[in-house]
Amino acid sequence: MAEYEIIHEKSPVFYERYERKNELQHQTHYCPGCGHGVAHKLIAEAIEELGLQERTIFVSPVGCSVFAYYYFNVGNIQAAHGRAPAAATGIKRACPDKIVISYQGDGDLAAIGTAEIVHAANRGEKITVFFINNAIYGMTGGQMAPTTMVGQASTTSPWGRRPANEGFPLHVSEMLATLEAPVYIERVALSDNKNIMKARKAVRKALELQRDGAGFSLVEILSPCPTIWKKDPVEARKWVAEKMIPVFPLGVFRDRKVEIPRIDVPQKTVAEALELCETPGQRLAPHHHGKPCTIKVAGFGGQGVLLMGIVLAEMGMREGLEVSWLPSYGPEMRSGSAHCHVCLAKERIGSPLVAHPEVLVAMNEQSLRKFAPTVAPGGLILYNRDSLPPDFAVSHARVMCLPASEIADKLGSAKVANVIMLGALLEETECMSPETAMTVIGQMVRKPELLKLNGEALHAGRVFVDHQVRVGAVSQPDGFAY
Amino acid sequence: MRQLCKGNVAVVKGAVLAGCRAYYGYPITPASEIAEYAALYIPEVGGTFVQAESEVASINMVYGAASTGVRVMTASSGPGLSLMQEGISYLCGSELPCVIVDVVRGGPGLGNIAPEQSDYFAMVKGGGHGNYHNLVLAPASVQEMADLTMLAFDLADRYRNPVIVLTDGFVGQMMEPIELQVSEVNPPEKPWAVKGTPETQNNLISSIYLEPDDLEKHERKLEQKYKLAQMLETRLETYMTDDAEILLVGYGIVSRVLRSAVDEARAQGLRAGLLRPITLWPFPSKALAETAARCKTVLTVEMSTGQMVEDVRLAINGKVPVELYSRIGGNVPSVEEVHARMLECAGAEV
């Protein structure tokens, strides 16, 4: 490569020699008269003047400026097309005291990255966006941009942009200025020296605001693209002034201090946050040793079906068993059905699915009809009614009908029907102890009056079973009662 | 202390214990609890949670955060992972570590929210563009949801690559007891990161290499890294394989069913065994080939129409017949079904 001599001094924010380029390391890859060169210069000079070079991170997504890292002697991150505001969000949140710049073209920012820029602005990310609007796709060779003007020809709008087909040019600054969070939005133009001086001030102001932690700032820069526009550099600047500025008026669209309401998050240690600190109630139940059992609880959403399963699993864990709880889950829909599988075992649990439960708790008729046939031979069905439906018979398992919902209503809350069922289940199977149940429920229910109600419900379920057994009302597979 | 915990919640606990202080995500069933608990726990320990506008944005927020060297993660389910594939390709191309959890649901398209294992191809084979691999871990219990998430952060840093925790709606939604302990986290130094400091000022995070020779060199470097991972990182679990005549192969929730099926088969005199890949990439091909060589037949069980079975067949290379039993749509193969299929396979042998 030929040696060269430096004649003009440039900002030290630029590398002295562009060694990341493969060749012609003394000049940029931008075309003569391209606005990127000027915009780069304004940004580099502002970074230098504000003394921000060592703490600046520059994000360059796809477009002609994808190679901005050739030139800027700052930390550089190249991002996917349109995603720079998202990447910049991740960077700024990780490094809040650094200066994060997202430098994007019009295809990048206003087409493929529309969602990312709108939401970064709306969150008030404390970043600075330089938006180069040249009304065309440069790098890919002159296709229509979202900012291409009505009637402006491009390789993908050969008859000129037709609003009936392509819609109208997008006014990004005006659009973002409707949002609450941004602190500064200005549109400038690289059309003549006077406007370039205004652009210089805007660039500097945007970076100053970021330095001061003010909030989201964006400078839209109307910028010449002589090569794609097929104009010489002078004509191209003129075209910015005469054609673009009337469509994209210059000015400040937002310049205000934004009051952001503060809601503080309580700070905790990792153990506190993750609830890894042991509480007395969480200790193993000392005297009880649970018996293995597979249980399915089924009913309507809202009947506490899933919660009853969790209580059983939690109890099993405290009684030294291996446990698993597996819910059916569905979209949040009213009166959907819900069920869960609970395995209580001595050994490591293989499948957490209970195809043939030893105990089925059917909180409604639908669940009874659906799952009763799956109950293991000799198993137990607890049904939430005082009798089975007349057309429904079970011969392979024991059935106990108890109107838990009715009893719950009498106790004062339909919500404890599941606890009544739990009491019955524990009394009938003796798989775990009612004391463990109360310990677990006590961890979940904090209000004393509700805890008392739950205790009454558990008791009512147990008493019901006790009474049934005494009067011999539990039906047997062979039709004989106890 | 043992605590009853949901699979999706265990992921977040594992992440926080591994030093993850940045989460960017978007809600989707059946993965939403991961975002919800990240929103709760991570700010409480001084970290960042942002609900992104889309999965496209969340994976690029992860990209930005990972560029600065922090431990960062996201989670989603199939439709969200489809949107993240572009970002995952960029993360691999730019050699950025992060953890991504896929709680797989039924598909294609909107499908349903019930569990499937149908994202195997998308996560294990790619899905994004270009020559890259994700490391993929497949937990089968709630404890492993936490443990493998922690491991995922270490592997991600070690290989400067995304690591996927590939699980499903069941493991995500189920509760089991877990034991977790707070211990000191020492993530490796990341001198390559861009932190906005004088020391990192000359660093560049990028995946663009215009010159063919430069790009080839870069991709060969990635390839070497992947070969190293294949040598060092395969993980698997076997159960009763020593004298097995029929070898069951399955991962995640299916492996749990298969373990029960092995017990059932053994109880009835059929010598069955189980090989469960824990790493789906790198796939434990060597161990599988060696184990299968001692068996008469291999039965792969999947909640897909047959995705992992391709890797099983490649590993075994025709030496032993490989059969497939598949359930999809949110149906999980039952022990009985697997047992019946085993008997068929065994019968076919005689």
Task: Offer a quick outline of the entry.
The complex is a heterodimer of chains A (482) and B (350). With 482 residues, chain A is of the alpha/beta class. Chain A contains 16 helices and 13 strands.
Describe, in plain words, how this protein is organized in 3D:
The complex is a heterodimer of chains A (482) and B (350). Chain A has 482 residues and is α/β, with parallel strands linked by helices. Chain A has 2 domains: 35-255, Thiamin diphosphate (ThDP)-binding fold, Pyr/PP domains (Rossmann fold), CATH 3.40.50; 285-471, Pyruvate-ferredoxin oxidoreductase, PFOR, domain III (Pyruvate-ferredoxin Oxidoreductase, domain 3, 3-Layer(aba) Sandwich). Chain A is 35% helix and 15% strand. Chain A has 16 helices and 13 strands. Chain A has a 7-stranded mixed beta sheet, with helices on both faces. In chain A, helix 3 (106-112) crosses helix 4 (114-122) and helix 15 packs antiparallel against helix 16. Mean pLDDT of chain A is 92; it is low at 475-482. In chain B, helix 2 links the parallel strand 2 and strand 3 (48-51). Chain B has helices at residues 7-17, 32-44, 55-67, 78-93, 120-125, 142-159, 169-173, 212-232, 253-267, 285-293, 308-316, 335-349, and strands at residues 2-6, 22-25, 48-51, 72-76, 98-106, 112-115, 135-137, 162-168, 175-179, 204-205, 236-239, 246-249, 272-277, 279-281, 297-302, 322-326. In chain B, the strands form 3 sheets. In chain B, strands 2, 3, 4, 5, 6, 7, 8 and 14 form an 8-stranded mixed beta sheet that branches. A 5-stranded mixed beta sheet of chain B has the order 11-13-12-15-16, with helices on both faces. A two-stranded antiparallel ribbon of chain B has the order 1-9. The model of chain B has no long low-confidence stretch (mean pLDDT 96). Chain B is of the alpha/beta class. Chain B folds into 2 domains: 2-232, Thiamin diphosphate (ThDP)-binding fold, Pyr/PP domains (Rossmann fold); 237-349, Rossmann fold, CATH 3.40.50. Chain B contains 12 helices and 16 strands. The relative contact order of chain B is 0.13. The chains are: A alpha/beta (482), B alpha/beta (350). The interface between A and B is large, with 71 and 79 residues. Strand 2 of chain A pairs parallel with strand 10 (204-205) of chain B, so a sheet runs across the interface.
